[in-house]
Amino acid sequence: MNAPALTPIALLLLGSLVALLGGTKLRSASLASIPLALGALFIGFGSSAAGWWAIDRLGLTLGATALVIGLCATRFALRQFMGERRGGPIVAASLLVVGTVVATDLAATPAALVLSWAATSGSTVLLLRAGAGTWSSGAVRSAARTFAVADGALVTSVLVVWEVAGSAALTAPLSSRTALVGSAGAILLVGTVLAAAGRAGMTGRRSWVLSTIATPTPVSVLLHAGVVNAGALLLLRVEMMTGSRWWLAAGLAAISVGVIVRAAPRIHARVDLKGQLAASTISQMAFMLLAIAVGWPLLAVTHLIGHGLYKAGRFMASGAATASRVRLRRRAPVGRLLPAPGRALGAAAILGVAGVLALRLGGDALAVMGVMAPGAVAVWWVRTRQRIIRPVVMVVGIAGALATYGVVVAGAQGLLGEALPGGAWQAPWWTLGLAVVAVAVLGVARRHRPRRLGTVERLVQPSGRSTQEAAA
Prior knowledge:
- 73% of the residues lie in helices and 0% in strands.
- It is mainly α.
- It has two domains: 3-317, no CATH class; 337-448, no CATH class.
- Helix 18 packs antiparallel against helix 19 (391-416).
- It starts with a helix and ends with a helix.
């Protein structure tokens, strides 16, 4: 075993035990295990010791992200449930989830990866139970069912690989490229795809991710530390050993596109903010897996980190966001409406900045600009439908955000390039951007399409009056 890699995991597990068995003061002190684990993670980086767990660049990056989100979520939970009986179990389960997520990030062999993955699923169910206060909660049951099927497929594939290729295949380093080829590699890859899709909530209307909207906010925040979005890491780690299979990549791409097309237009159909965020998470996870399927792994990793940090912040600010919306609707409109030529000029400026960045940075940054530029233009176009005060400042802000993201991706390419699978077929750089545009157009079309009244809506309509009259 690799002691430097096990140290941060052990600290988090110890903190979980202290939070569960201790009182209010010890519960607060248990949070120190997260910064201690973060320090141990950086100190242990570069250790040459080999084992089932090791600290490489990808594990360090994702583990540090999980610890930052975990610290914010656990502090939030500590304040929210101060003095409540369930405060201890929630904080303890939160630290347990962070510990198992970090173990997944640092797993260096297939056996360690599967064990850590299954442990994360179990600790997530415990966290949902602690938040709900009962095992009969819909979120607990939905997550347990999904994990049992998805993780069961992964474990079954591992057992088959053990039978076909022997135990040595499960203890070989994940970093050894194409060490597991042939039928054994294909079987493990199929189980990996099923487990990743299940964890991402890509299971239709009864997605376990949507069922978590009834859980406390800290629980929703912590799920983005490496639970719902861990499928990317699982796929990338396994693909390093097995290589990719075109037929499996094509199937994953088709499923991901189907989920995006189905889920994206429904995000704004929900009236609850947490429901919108949860539905958006499923769509974003499908996009992340799509990026892996079409051969852009670095784009998936940066999306994993960026989405996790962004969505965690959105969940923690969801209460204040609702009040802010009310204030904005009550406030008299200010600023001025931009004419169509001004809006077009702003969109052209944003696209111009994205094009220059793409040409200068190249590589994965080119694909990132192909995805982000249409989204940035869409944000500009929708926002300028209303009155705005400083349009030039808004254009500069959007262009600056694009530039920052492009530079971050270019830096990540140099840092993480060797830790990601390469050499496989890549779709053209504009493919993912085209998918984003297609989904946006479809969403607008669906939003303006007349829809049939549901059963509840028909029941509440006054008899003998049309829908238009009732609405008036």
